[in-house]
Amino acid sequence: MPHKRSPFIDSIRRFMRLNGYSIRTEQSYIYWIKYYIRFNQYKHPTKMSNAEIVSFLEHLAADRHVRASTQRIALNAVMFLYSKYLDQPITGLKFRLATKPRTLPTVLSMSETVLIIDQLKGVHKLVVEMMYGSGLRVSECLRLRVQDINFANASVIVRDGKGGKDRVSILSLKLKDQLDKQIEKALALQKNDNERGLGPSMPVALARKFPNAYRQSPWMFIFPSISLCKHPITDQWCRHHLHSSVIRKAVKQATIQSNVNKRVSCHTFRHSFATHLLEGGADIRTVQELLGHSDLKTTQIYTHVIGQHYAGTTSPLDKIREHRADYFLSERP
């Protein structure tokens, strides 16, 4: 039996699309809005206010034990619902912040990175090498189009990254031959799709303004999906990029085969990119720019990983050992 759609939720989704919210923000906000309504026994949001919102947020902290960042996303979703969609701004919220401590990210050594990458093959290997070589999130890497690669400047353009921001990162020229071959395959697939009136999924507004843009090579995904799908907004058949779950499964299997005893995810390669740059002497503000962090404090977490936060500090145990050695040397006849 098909799941019954909610006209209220469909209306919120349409409002977000009309106002240019990204599909990822839409999915996240819709998830938390649904959760908020379910938590309050399906009461309509116009019948709820501060008390229900506070109860929901404290439930996330006390019962779900979510991180402060997750609680903040849920809060943003509820604030969007009231302030933007319902035009009923909420003020004076007093709730308990989630206090689950932030943990240090898992980082691979260079040798561990090599061990895992060597277990990968084909497009899976190239995607992971791009994530590590350019500090990309898996979604950012898979959304790359042909026009985003600049071999002349050894750079890659990340469009509509986290927070809707564009940025430029570095590109390893060691990947040029592999990328050239992958782009060639992608363009051949685009040509075949074009003969059937199909092409890569396009930004809705751009497709409306330039209806034949899907036939142009710059707009082809470098890592296209094997199969066709319907566009989530226009409902037209198209070819999207490779799904992130494909890469996540490949990374998990490669980690097992490599015998690296760490909890490795796709994001681990982005963490390792930042840490290895800092270990190599890169300026922290350069790393911040390459990662696209708005706040330097976010980037500084990697200085804790490599111990730069305590630069120049020596363990007292080392001093005891040095003192003991000096003592015995001075006492010898």
What general outline do the C-alpha atoms trace?
Answer: globular
Q: Which ranges are low-confidence, i.e. pLDDT below 50, for 5 or more consecutive residues?
A: none
Count of helices? 14
Largest sheet: 3 strands, antiparallel
Report Rg: 25 Å
Classify the helix fraction into a percent range: 40-55%
Strand content: under 5%
Report how far the terminal alpha carbons are from each other. Answer: 93 Å
Order of helices and strands: HHHHHHHEEEHHEEHHHHH
Q: Would you tell me the structural class of the helices and strands? A: mainly alpha
Mean pLDDT: 89
**Strand arrangement in the largest pleated sheet:** 1-2-3
Number of strands: 5
Per-chain topology:
Blueprint: H1 7-18, H2 23-39, H3 50-62, H4 68-85, H5 110-117, H6 122-134, H7 138-142, E1 149-150, E2 155-158, E3 167-170, H8 176-194, H9 204-209, E4 229-230, E5 237-238, H10 244-258, H11 266-279, H12 284-291, H13 296-306, H14 316-331
Antiparallel strand pairs: 1-2, 2-3, 4-5
Helix pairs in contact: 1-2, 2-4, 3-4, 5-10, 6-11, 11-13, 12-13
